[in-house]
Every structure is written in C-alpha cells, then in structure tokens.
Amino acid sequence: MAAAHLPSxxxxxxxxxxxxxxxxxxxxxxxxxxTLARLTRxxxxxxxxxxxxxxxxxxxxxxxxxxLRLANTLPYRQGTPPVTTVTRAIFLLGFDQVRAAATxxxxxxxxxxxxxxxxxxxxxxxxxLAGCLARELLAxxxxxxxxxxxIAAMFRHLGRLLVAVFAPQALAENxxxxxxxxxxxxxxLLRDWSLPDRLRAAVALLPSRVAAPRxxxxxxxxxxxxxxxxxxxxxxxxxREPAIAQVLARFAxxxxxxxxxxxxxIEAAIRRARxxxxxxxxxxxxxxxSPVLDxxxxxxxxxxxxxxxxxxxDAIGRPANAREVLLAGLADAAESLARGGNFNTVIQVVLETxxxxxxxxxxxxxxxxxxxxxxxxxxxxxxPRPAFLFTTDGARDLFAAALAKSTDLHIGNVDAEKIRKAxxxxxxxxxxHARSFVLLPLTLNGIAVGFLYAxxxxxxxxGLSAEELNLLRALxxxxxxxxxxxxxxxxx
Length: 492
Hints:
It is a single chain. By secondary structure, this protein is α+β, with helices and mostly antiparallel strands. It folds into 2 domains: 12-279, Orthogonal Bundle (Hypothetical protein af1432), CATH 1.10.3210.10; 310-489, Beta-Lactamase. The chain contains 22 helices and 6 strands. Strand 2 and strand 3 form a beta hairpin. The longest helix has 24 residues, at 466-489.
C-alpha cells in the first residue's frame, strides 16, 4: 500500500496516531489479530491442544497451504513421506514448532499482503531472523520455552511492521521517536488482540540494565529481546560490528557467549530464516554472512497434494481435487498405522482428510462407552464443535436404526418432513446448523462401537459419488484398524 508523502517525523505520538488512523482507514488487521490470538492461546496438551491448533490452521485455507508446503521442505521433512495433513505435520514437527511456524505465516500474510514495498519485506525478514535467533539461543531448552521465545521475538517487531506498511518513510529516519512509536504500537496491538499475558510480558521492554534470568518466564523474555536486538544490529546498513558489541555488552549478564559460539548461532539462524523464506516462495534477503548459505539446495520443495482454494470449490464447498486429497490422506493414515503410529494421530489424520477433502462444515468420531452404552464425541473438527452424548437403548430413530443395522447414511436435506420425524429429539438441539449429513457406523465383531459423522450447513441433494464413498469407507477402515490396535493395548 502506498503511503502519502509526509515530512520528517519529530513526534512519536504523531507517528503513532498517523499509523493507527491509516490502519483504521484501511480496515485494520482484524483477521491477523484473531488468528494470532487463537494460535497463541491453544492448549499445550497432547489431545485438545493438537485438535484446537489443527482447527485454527484449517480455518484458513491459505495458512493450511503454506504450512503444508513448509512441512514438505527438506529441512523439515527429514526423509519421511510427503506430509498431506495439518495433523500429521503437528505430530511430525512438534506442537510448539507448528504453532510458531503458523504464527510466522500469519504475520507474513497479514503484513506483506498490505504492503509490497521493500521496507515491509525487509522488516519481515528482520522479525523472522529475530525469531530464529531466539530459537538458536535457547537450543536444548524446553521446547515450549524455545518456541515461545521465538514468537515473542517476532512480536517485538509488530510495531515496526505496522510502520513499514502505513508510514514507510519514517523507517529511513530510524529516530528515537520511531523506536518509541514502534514500542507503543506493539503494546497496543498485543492488547487489542487480547494475546496471552505470558506473551505480553515476554514482549514488554526490558530495563536498560539486564539481569540474569531467574525462571522460565524471565529466560523467555531475555532471550526474545536479546534476539530482537541482535537481529536489529545484524540488519544495520553500516557500522554493524559496534552495534553488535553494544548488544553483547548489554545482555552479557544473561548470555555471555564466546565469539565462536555466537557466530555459530548467527549462521544457524540465518540459515533457518533463509529456509523458511524459500519454503514460502520468497526470495531470501541477503544475509550478513552469505558464504555459509550458498551451499544450501535451491530446490528443496517436495510435491504433496493440497486442498484447492475456495475459488476452486463446488456449490457445497467440495474442493476440485477432492479425490487426490482423499487418496493422499488414506496413504498418510495407512503409513502411520504401518509404523505403529499413535492412536490419536491416525484418528485425526482421517478426520482432517475427510473434513478438508470433501469440504464438510464439521466432522466427528463418536465412540460408544462399553460401561454406560452412551455415545460420546472422541475427536472432531469444525465450528461449532460437534458434542454428541446419547444412548440408543430403547430408541427407534434414524441414528439407532443405522447403528443397529450398520447402515451408511447420507441425508441430503434434514428439513424434509419424513427425515425430520425420524431424527432423534436431541438432533435439533446439538446439530442445529446441519442441513445435510453423512453417518458411517463403526462395527467390530458385529458390534457397533461408534460412528463417523460429517455435516454441512447446506442442502446436499447429490451426496457423494461412488468413488468418494469408497474412499470414505477405506478411511473408516483405517480407524477400525487403529481401534483394534488400541483395544489390544487397553480398553477404549
């Protein structure tokens, strides 16, 4: 976005106000803030956290595409088969690494899409380099600490990114007013976006005298700001050595590093930043120490099917390459099972494949509790999240009949009078948004143990093609195999 020509800035308040006014006039950055807030608030558990993280990423088709492309580059992939689902990417790369990568991609799309000038590109590189430096500085520490420090280091740069988009001429002056305005803009963005307190604390400006950190929170904060200051000195157009020396002197109580170790950290961070930029289709910025980087492979992307963008979908949201996505997910689930994969991994790979590959609004795996006979949601994707809790004992509705007879159902219009009368009483309450749905019973040894459910907010009179239904049944078989493996280890 081209900014109007303005005179030299002499007042940080005026610069801050101009940027905020320009951002509001351009519609602000609401989607960026919403997605960043969700990404940084997801739970750190191995069940709900993975599912919520995958949900957040899948809600944005462009983010899903970029993350899968990143996961299928040589430095990340490390010899595994192509990654075709977000769930698999999370289990392969790690929860915190995917969350940090997705956060970076949201910043990339949110800011670069609004300002295509070199100033925005350079500031994004500086933010990315800061995140990579923080990760290298804490290498070997707890993985959550490492990734939170990387995120905090990038968030330290939010104010300058906003200035680069809406007042790029102010960057050239690099004044004290610019630094103060950027700091206040960062604080305002973090507050307006309701980001978690722990991240806001990590981003809050340190005092001029830095002390050795006493706990994990302080370690994250100091590492993030050391990395951000180091990235700024490395990005200086001239007098780089004095700038680096000044940063090292300030942070010496926390990070007293030998020159050789610092050099290794810087080179590793530059290499990581370049790999990330290449995976995102960006021309890497010229690094301070280029010889180390010239040996990297230029062609490092490995093809993997991705979900077609919204523009290439049919009237009910099914992507144009549905068959390819379903086949890739089937191979992914089978490969996970063959390797003795985690039960949750197989389930979520299958659910995500069906959810994304056929464009459903929601999908759920529902299992029967042998002790009580109640059917409960075990895993799901979509909003609002499906929350099944019912029993078929004594029931004579459509769900009870399908489960008793192990019959696959496709209901194209739930409002049809005959269908509405046959649905259980709880359906209108728990599935109020559904206008069509698919139900695939799960049966082991002739006993119903659960079902797969997927719905749409639209009437779907045509339903699934014969090939899509066969692929869905093959994916269901992967869940049944996973259930058999799980039951052999412990009761469901």
